[in-house]
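#structure-requests
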Amino acid sequence: MAGTCFIFGAGEYYADPVSPREGDFIIAADGGYAYLNELGASPDLIIGDFDSLPAPPEGREVITLSPLKDDTDVLAAIKEGWARGFRRFCVYGGTGGRIDHTLANIACVAGVAQQGGRAWLYDKTSVITAVHNGAMCFPAGLEGYISIFAYTDEAEGVCARGFKYELEDARLVSTFPKGVSNEFDGRQARVSVARGTIVIIYPKK
């Protein structure tokens, strides 16, 4: 089974620890290459239209995209990783700066979930992921806020167990943020959705 695909975008970074293991794969999405250079890390693949770099990098596996494209650089990186067999994606440098790129990367996270994979988008204090027709569990001892949003028009059969405010077989809609600012209370916790896609935001710690 393939490991984890780490993707580095051109957004803001927050000193997240990254420790790839054997079988993992690192992709620099355009300007993310500059960040990896600062870390002294070598990506396995560099992809993008390179509008964030003075010139396309040389001497590595490079995929140069046309600037006239529908996919963002991060989405192109996810597609490339998916084609190579990866189903788990950790995206860094995908938030901050332009809000449209942050929203685009949340859409990428949801899209991965809808295809049967899982992606995590790392922000300054939070992790953003998505679940489609499935569940996500959390260990005991966690603190802080967790928010759950419907990403499809409707998310049905939503359960949130082991939190301060629990949901049971709830219906969430994308235009009403009913699941915002729930809290961990130290118990083992579980979020699930029977039908639809939910975006989950929880503390990075």
